[in-house]
Design brief:
About 25% of the residues lie in helices and about 20% in strands. The chain has about 550 residues and is α+β, with helices and mostly antiparallel strands. The longest helix has 17 residues. The relative contact order is 0.10.
């Protein structure tokens, strides 16, 4: 059980190191004297004149210096009074020594950028005779108090530590969960230092499987989650517990490629899945230490959704890979007009494969009425592709949604817009199902570890439909919109591109999904534009590495 023992403040000597902006380095909790700069919580003015307008350069420098100096002294009340939210700031600052057991640290401010002041912290954490250094960087922002007019630090928990959120706290003590050593399918050890995107996943694996795997607890500094069901994030290990071995389906080589690939774009996610088994081979996000959008995101997937739509239309006999399909530049459906990218059209003699490979929206929407069922797409997604069946991957994941819709909203779903939502994991799984014809629920941890039951779809695609679907994806990769991105990928390969328009966003989200032999991968890049331009190279990189 995690516990805390109050540690006495360690004395020291205040030191100032002259820097480019006149700031110094502050020894935290070292008995520093008065800050010498007045301030106050944003409550009411203490003088007749309340200053307005943006904070000045001098105010930014003086206020940040005074705040850091008070924090350095360990005087939480004074430091909190220099923020615009003393009620939240003071207990957090007190907890830095009392709960996190930081006994010594040096804060070094950097040059201000506008009203933001970055700084580095080199700390020492001590607990029950165990001591370890701890370094990190954060920043604060100086704002003008709304009622006082004083320059104040805009209080956010991230002022204390960049990963700290509202309602969370820093703690040091005996860990509540047993240590683990997570390994990939070949026995390679997976760490958050080597594979940053796995940080949150490894924390969750520890919480779920540490005790089952035979691990023991250690002494750590962690972020105590604000959610009772959440996962604590370990920041520093003072004493390692005996790790229990937790097997995963990940592949270290593919994971490394995924980690490198997503660094090309902010807001990027990629997942790789083995079609024949559903085993997840790689998961990566940029930023790596935030929300696991690759497995938990929920947003419109654009034209990658046409894989499901094409399967539906072929199964119903409304289209076939080699039959002609109308692709006008625009089409009206129940009062809503849809058009193709840049209003392109295809000759009426072109096949459905051509419409798929060149991502023609109108060819798909023109066939909606013929399905004679507004809920047909959702049924296809659930019954064949397993979307919405509450996947049990071994960690937290969201398995997509195609809610019932009518009219223009239903039409938008056929091309991956409107109310349909997916993430990279969902699209990788959809591609894997298209590749084999049968849904295999994605897993990151073998079900044998905890006996959880995996879900199954109610039916498979026929060999004929599977063949047509994969041939259309092969065409997309060889001469369609996925050609450029997939040119470096070897083996039997296929793809589908997508661009998802988002309200209020100037540039579409970039989606891409593809397969090479027995590996499928999907990626999304926020505001990345065309699927082949941004998300495509990420998928290609993972497919190359996973062979």
């Amino acid at each position: 059980m995690r516990s805390g023992v109050k540690v006495a403040v360690v004395g020291g000597v205040f030191a100032v190191v002259v820097g480019g902006v006149g700031y110094g380095a502050y020894n935290v909790l070292d008995g520093l004297g008065d800050s010498g700069v007045g301030g106050g919580t944003d409550t009411k003015a203490t003088s007749a004149e309340v200053k307005t307008g943006p904070v000045t350069k001098d105010e930014i420098a003086e206020t940040s210096k005074a705040f850091l100096a008070a924090w350095a002294k360990g005087d939480a009340a004074v430091a909190a009074d220099l923020t615009n939210n003393k009620g939240d700031a003071e207990p957090a600052l007190i907890g830095y020594s009392d709960s996190a057991h930081v006994t010594k640290a040096v804060i070094t401010p950097g040059p201000a950028t506008g009203s933001k002041v970055p700084y580095t912290v080199k700390a020492t954490v001590s607990y029950e005779g165990k001591t370890k250094p701890w370094s990190y960087a954060s920043e604060l922002t100086v704002v003008r108090g709304l009622t006082t007019g004083r320059p104040l630090v805009d209080w956010l928990p991230s002022v204390i530590h960049p990963d700290l959120a509202k309602g969370e706290s820093l703690e040091t003590g005996e860990s509540q969960t047993a240590s683990i050593e997570a390994v990939d399918r070949n026995g390679n050890v997976l760490t958050k230092e080597k594979y940053p995107s796995l940080g949150g996943i490894l924390d969750e694996l520890r919480k779920r499987y540490g005790a089952k795997a035979g691990g023991t607890v250690g002494i750590e500094t962690w972020i105590n989650s604000a959610n009772a069901d959440g996962v604590d994030k370990t920041l520093l290990t003072l004493v390692k517990g005996k790790p229990g071995r937790v097997p995963t389906t990940l592949d270290a080589k593919a994971q490394a490629a995924a980690e490198t690939a997503v660094k090309q774009f902010g807001g990027a996610s990629v997942v790789a899945v083995k079609p024949s088994t559903g085993e997840i081979r790689a998961v990566a996000n940029n930023p790596a230490n935030g929300f696991n959008a690759a497995m938990q995101g929920a947003q419109a997937p654009g034209s990658t959704m046409k894989i499901v739509t094409a399967a539906l239309l072929i199964e119903k006999g409304l289209a076939s890979a080699n039959s002609p399909a109308e692709c006008p530049k625009e089409v009206l459906y129940q009062g809503t007009t849809f058009h193709n990218l840049k209003y392109f059209s295809l000759p009426p003699t072109d096949t459905f494969t051509s419409s798929f490979a060149q991502s023609c929206n109108t060819a798909f929407i023109k066939l909606i009425d013929d399905t004679k069922d507004d809920a047909a797409l959702g049924k296809e997604a659930r019954d064949v592709f397993g979307i919405g069946l509450e996947w049990k991957t071994g960690v937290t994941s969201v398995d997509g949604s195609v809610p019932e819709a009518t009219g223009g909203v239903a039409a938008a779903q056929y091309i991956g817009q409107g109310t349909v939502t997916m993430n990279a994991l969902n699209m990788a799984s959809i591609t894997a199902t298209a590749r084999t014809g049968t849904f295999h629920q994605p897993v990151l941890v073998p079900s044998s570890l905890d006996g959880r039951r995996l879900v199954t779809a109610s039916r498979s695609l026929s060999p004929n439909v599977t063949g047509q679907l994969t041939n259309m994806m092969r065409a997309t990769a060889s001469w369609g919109t996925g050609k450029a991105a997939m040119s470096s990928v070897l083996g039997d390969k296929g793809a589908k591109t997508g661009s998802a328009e988002v309200d209020g966003q100037g540039k579409s989200n970039s989606w891409f999904t593809g397969f090479s032999d027995d590996l499928a991968a999907a990626a999304v890049v926020q505001s990345g534009g065309h699927g082949g331009d941004a998300a495509g190279p990420l998928v290609a990189a993972v497919l190359r590495a996973g062979r």
